[in-house]
Design brief:
The structure holds 2 protein chains of 2 kinds. Chain A is mainly beta. Helix content of chain A is 0%, strand content 58%. Chain A contains no helices and 11 strands. Chain A starts with a strand and ends with a strand. In chain B, the strands form 2 sheets. In chain B, strands 2, 4, 5, 6, 9, 10 and 11 form a 7-stranded mixed β-sheet that branches. Classes of the chains: A mainly beta, B mainly beta. At the A-B interface, strand 4, strand 5 and strand 10 of A face strand 10 of B.
């Protein structure tokens, strides 16, 4: 059974802080990794994709991948209240396998 | 703008009354997916089409069917909705299998 694990949260950070979201996966052959943001009652929105070990930066978002440790993370710098959402980690393993999501709350 | 469109956004149906949800895309993607998402759960893949090739997940109930009459459109038919089928139904597309998936806004289904 291929699994993707995330801390459910809620993760609460003050405005302007760095939010760190973590994800581990069980399938060693996975090659593609994604982070989706989902606001309450809305559909998932793709915010980051990463395919090779290391860091990938896009604006305030940085995705980090370590295939040896089967670990992928998302850092959100200068967190804003509008970043408050559930963040879904997804791993491509034949099909897209989602974690349960981490709820992030950014307090003004 | 290229996008994934789902209609209706909200659907109320009665127990046992067939319902059809629709999805269209202007991205010209080869692959279209249907997911079911219940509150506080991860999206669950029901099936997907690669072009006209249909791929059903092993645990998708027979009550759920799908049609893809052309590249742009895909439909989800629920033949006899039960109370347990109340959920958000998400359509997604990707250019190829294993590529990034883009979701439509979803249809919130209520079963009374």
């Amino acid at each position: 059974q291929k699994e993707v694990e995330q801390n459910s949260g809620p993760l609460s950070v003050p405005e302007g802080a760095i939010a760190s979201l973590n994800c581990t996966y069980s399938d060693r052959v996975s090659q593609s990794f994604f982070w989706y943001r989902q606001y309450s009652g809305k559909s998932p929105e793709l915010i980051m994709s990463i395919y090779s070990n290391g860091d990938k930066e896009d604006g305030r978002f940085t995705a980090q991948l370590n295939k040896a440790s089967q670990y992928v993370s998302l850092l959100i710098r200068d967190s804003q209240p509008s970043d408050s959402a559930t963040y879904l980690c997804a791993v491509q393993g034949g099909k897209l396998i989602f974690g349960q999501g981490t709820e992030l709350s950014v307090k003004p | 703008d290229a996008m994934v469109i789902q209609n209706p956004r909200y659907q109320v149906t009665q127990f046992g009354k067939p319902v059809t949800l629709s999805c269209s895309q202007t991205l010209n993607h080869n692959v279209m997916y249907w997911y079911q998402q219940k509150s506080s759960q991860a999206p669950k893949l029901l099936f997907h089409y690669y072009d006209k090739d249909f791929n059903n997940e092993a645990d998708t109930p027979d009550n759920f069917q799908s049609r893809r009459p052309n590249t742009s459109f895909c439909f989800l038919d629920i033949r006899s909705p039960g109370l347990g089928d109340a959920a958000m139904y998400l359509c997604a597309t990707s250019a190829e299998e294993d590529y990034e998936q883009y979701f439509g806004p979803g249809t919130r289904l209520t079963v009374t």
